[in-house]
Design brief:
With about 300 residues, the chain is α+β, with helices and mostly antiparallel strands. It is built from 9 helices and 17 strands. The strands form 2 sheets. Strands 1, 2, 3, 4, 5, 6, 7, 9, 10, 11, 14 and 15 form a 12-stranded mixed beta sheet that branches. Strands 8-17-16-12-13 form a 5-stranded mixed beta sheet. It is globular, with a radius of gyration of 19 Å.
Length: about 300
Amino acid sequence: MKLATLEVNGAETAAVYTPDGLILLADINQSFSTDFPVTLQELIQTERLDKLNDFWNQKKDDMGALLPDCAIPPDRAVFAPPYRHPRKIWGIGLNYRAHAGDLGETAPSSEPASFMKPDTTIIGHGDTIHLPLMSERVTGEAELGLVFGKMCRDVDRSEWRSVLAGFTTIIDMTAEDILRRNPRNLTQAKSFNTFFSFGPLLYTIDECVDVMSLRIATVHNGGVHAGNTVANMTFPPDYLVSYHSRIMTMLPGDIISTGTPGAAVLRDGDVIECRIDGWLPLVNPVIDLKYVREA
């Protein structure tokens, strides 16, 4: 199942994505007398996503009756971030050796280079990335996102899929000049408003059987800046889930952004995308606040 959050009549509400249109959970509830939460955050945090997925798989042949009257065409949908307040966002630095080489850095080999981001960084598909006044060099980085669906601790690598709600596309930003001044500035460099875009869809765990074959690309102004497959990560998803669950309890809705194949330098007027083969792309325009201020 593929899920999104849409802006509808001034509110953000969850919907199921189909190629023929998006069906609001509120309409599903009304049509089938169900009581699923109508926001994706509540659906995940109350651990009812699995029940919705089971219901959808049982009833999806009947959902066609809702399409003529209820479905929102994909080209008319206004996507919001899937949700706005995860308890934790973990980012993974330099998880592809090729990207580490681009930066003149040595890729970590013994443990992931992890950092955390606040939820005030969050934006969604189509929202504008703001290059801050405090930085002269910001990069954008396409990444695969892991979304937790269960509270968990000390997860074995073999059980990693059992604790996830699913996967999503992410664009992470870094104020690279701030980071280069001092590596201890990592939190500052990663935490400006608009520095974490995700969505437009959450793909439930059953939608992606072969995660290791996924190809992630950072696309800058329409051209592929860098691309790589999950199989080439130094620390693959199963390791990242297990490792971080040994540090702290992971909660439903928590996110791990698994690292980028390459970071593109962003400038005013640019457009950056995260493309994962077979998935809807995540696309964000860019403005430089320094130019806005001057205007």
